[in-house]
Amino acid sequence: MRRSRRAVVGLVALGLIVGAAWLAGRPHDPPTRSGAAADEAARAPGEAGGPGGVGEDETGETLERLTELLDAKIDGTLGRIEPVRRDPASGWAGARIVHPSHDDWEPAVAADPDKPWVYVAVTRYGAPLCADCPDPTIMFERSKDGGKTWSKARPVCRCEGTAWQADPILEVARNTGSVYAIWMNGWNVHFSRSDDHGRTWTDPVSTKGKVAWNDKPAMTVSDDGQDVFVSWNGPSGGDAFVARSNDAGATWRRRKVVDSDRYYFAYDGTITPSGSVVLAESSLDYSGSDGAPVGTVKHHALISDDGGDTWRNVVVGTVRIGPPCVAVACPNDYYLGHSSVASDADGNLVFVFDGSSRAGARQRTWVTTSSDDGTTWTTPVPVSTPHEQSGFPMVDATGSGDMRMWYMETVGGSRNAWNVWYRASTDAGATWTPPAKLSDVTAGWAYLSKRGFREPYGDYGEIAITSAGKTFAAWGEGMSYLGPGGVWFNRER
Question: Which of helix, strand or coil describes residue 11?
Answer without folding.
Answer: helix
